[in-house]
């Protein structure tokens, strides 16, 4: 028996809200101020500049073959959300172009680039958080990841660089640099929105004084720790590695503990994108 695929109205609503936010910035800051864009959205701007084709139309047309490609990659639910997001994006791009709205930025392209990145980041983050995408590069990246073994981030980076390079056919270097600024802001904002502004760090601590360190972390910081069994490659001796998940502020407190108990401890600090479990209140559920 096939497993029933569940869809939730909230997901569709929030994906639509995210695409509306993205489209607002795309029309009022990217298009108005001649800023390029990466991915398929950037290709639509190239067609608009060179052939006067409305991005609302090319957004759909360019994604149709990608939908066919993405069916086997995303599964039924993910593909439905992706199609919904792509169609909503095209609709909102079309609508915002027909609204008589003028945002006075005093011809400041830097502010336009910052706002373009912020609106795209907020919109994209909402879409991703609720299980959707806007098609385009996401489908291409997933395809090369699954079929060719390429890392998703690398594929998206190469695709964006290619599109931005082609965008030099209608914008100058100055506007391209402002586009790079917008892209950087987008990458930062989308991560914050997608993760709910929740930032944690993971610490791996290797020390012969692991018992005293872990006890101090528990007593003074109130954060639980886990022992991982390990063996030194050179010494061949068994030891224990402390693993603890902390907020950025707590990381500094643990560094103080290490300086007090064992200044020679080996520490690796990693970014943690999501934590689910006791003591951490944020859980990101894309299957709402």
TrEMBL record:
The keyword Cell membrane applies. One of its GO terms (cellular component) is plasma membrane. The keyword Iron does not apply. It is found in: Cell membrane. This is DUF2179 domain-containing protein. Coiled coil: none annotated. Keywords: Cell membrane, Membrane, Transmembrane, Transmembrane helix. It is a multi-pass membrane protein. InterPro entries: DUF2179, N-reg_PII/ATP_PRibTrfase_C, UPF0750_membrane, YitT.
């Amino acid at each position: 028996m096939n497993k029933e695929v569940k869809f939730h109205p909230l997901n569709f609503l929030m994906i639509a809200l995210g695409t509306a936010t993205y489209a607002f910035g795309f029309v009022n800051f990217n298009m108005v101020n001649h800023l390029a864009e990466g991915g398929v959205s950037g290709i639509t701007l190239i067609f608009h500049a060179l052939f006067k084709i409305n991005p609302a139309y090319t957004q759909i047309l360019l994604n149709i073959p990608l939908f066919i490609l993405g069916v086997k990659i995303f599964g039924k639910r993910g593909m439905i959300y992706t199609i919904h997001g792509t169609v909503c994006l095209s609709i909102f791009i079309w609508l915002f172009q027909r609204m008589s709205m003028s945002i006075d930025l005093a011809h400041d392209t830097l502010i336009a680039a910052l706002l373009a990145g912020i609106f795209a980041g907020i919109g994209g983050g909402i879409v991703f958080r609720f299980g959707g995408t806007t098609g385009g590069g996401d489908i291409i990246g997933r395809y090369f990841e699954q079929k060719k073994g390429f890392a998703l981030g690398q594929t998206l980076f190469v695709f964006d660089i290619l599109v931005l390079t082609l965008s030099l056919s209608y914008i100058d270097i100055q506007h391209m640099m402002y586009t790079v600024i917008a892209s950087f802001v987008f990458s930062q904002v989308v991560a914050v929105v997608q993760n709910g502004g929740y930032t944690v760090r993971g610490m791996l601590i290797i020390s012969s004084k692991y018992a005293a360190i872990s006890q101090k972390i528990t007593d003074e910081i109130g954060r639980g720790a886990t022992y991982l069994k390990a063996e030194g490659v050179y010494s061949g001796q068994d030891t224990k590695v402390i693993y603890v998940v902390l907020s950025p502020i707590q990381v500094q407190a643990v560094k103080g503990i290490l300086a007090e108990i064992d200044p020679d401890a080996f520490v690796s600090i990693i970014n943690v994108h999501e934590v689910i479990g006791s003591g951490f209140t944020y859980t990101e559920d894309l299957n709402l």
